[in-house]
Amino acid sequence: PSPTAPPAPAPAPSPVTPSAPPSVAQEPPPPPASAPLAEAPLPPPAPGREAPEAQGEYAPKSLAQLVGTWAYYAEDCERLFERRGGGWAYRQPVDKFAQAAIVEPKRILLPSATCQVAGASEAGGALKVSAECADSITYTTRSVMIVLRSPTELAYSATGDPVLATTLKKCAP
Q1: What is the model's pTM?
Q2: Per-residue pLDDT, 172
Q3: Between the CA of residue 17 and those of 14, 24, 51, 79, 131, what are the distances in Å?
Q4: Under 8 Å CB-to-CB from 40, ≥6 apart: which residues?
């Protein structure tokens, strides 16, 4: 029999050894063709435009639940409203373009109009308020759908469409 050859000597390590490449997080592979494709996550909604189901919106039981002062920004409350004669009033001069309201049991005072409430009832998960509104020029009938997002935040829309809703924050009593 022939003798076996000795194994070849291992090469000597070089003085500078390359470092291992950094580990890189890899994305998971795409789902197989038979699996349904997952929808891409949507970006968060703009402030004040949150989806109703995400916020747990609910209809106020009555207009009495909304009595008080409401403003688009809570920081505007002191600038817009003042106590006068045991009730609330707009500070003078009135900012006619402010998104704000003073809700009383039978009327709603807007910066540029006064609305006498004709009726309020639950409709489609919202409180539908009908009112006769007068400003310095016109007299109109208006309806608005109101939902509460919390005891201190409401959203209202003439159509009931949450995309078109305006959010108001309740001012401190």
Answers
A1: 0.67
A2: 81
A3: 6, 21, 57, 70, 83
A4: none
